[in-house]
């Protein structure tokens, strides 16, 4: 349903605009809130040193998945910056994306 609305809304756009929309959609993909909650709970258990071996294995898998998603996101950000002919930091600022620090 949402894909149809997006498709209808942007039908007939120039190829660059179509590429930009696809990149923005890819950049904005992420985990659902429930998955984030689970991830944060596991991190808290790890930090408190109360995590089980099974949960630690899940946390490692989730962390790997998150790192791969972030690498893909950066790749798409670089592609979009090239498409818009702007520097990556400028694009990130325009999109309201800032590096997370702990």
Describe the fold and architecture:
The protein has 102 residues and is mainly α. The chain contains five helices and no strands.
Taking all residues together, what is the mean pLDDT?
87
Uncertain runs with pLDDT below 50, 5 residues or more?
none
Q: Find the structural class using helix and strand composition.
A: mainly alpha
Main sheet overview: none
The succession of helices and strands, N to C, reads: HHHHH
Strand content: under 5%
How far apart are the first and last residues' alpha carbons, in Å? 37 Å
Count the beta strands.
0
Radius of gyration computed on alpha carbons = 18 Å
Q: Specify the number of helices.
A: 5
State the main characteristics:
single chain, 102 residues, mainly alpha
Topology:
Elements: H1 2-9, H2 15-27, H3 33-47, H4 53-84, H5 88-95
Helix pairs in contact: 2-4, 3-4, 4-5
Provide a compact summary of the structure:
By secondary structure, the chain is mainly α. The protein is 75% helix and 0% strand.
């Amino acid at each position: 349903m949402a894909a149809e609305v997006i498709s209808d809304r942007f039908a007939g756009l120039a190829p660059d605009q179509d590429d930009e929309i696809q990149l923005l959609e890819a950049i904005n993909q992420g985990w659902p809130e429930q998955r984030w909650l689970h991830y944060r709970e596991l991190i808290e258990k790890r930090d408190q040193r109360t995590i089980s071996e099974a949960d630690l294995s899940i946390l490692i898998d989730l962390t790997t998945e998150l790192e791969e998603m972030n690498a893909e996101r950066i790749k798409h950000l670089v592609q979009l910056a090239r498409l818009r002919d702007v520097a990556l930091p400028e694009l990130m600022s325009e999109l309201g994306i800032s590096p997370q620090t702990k």
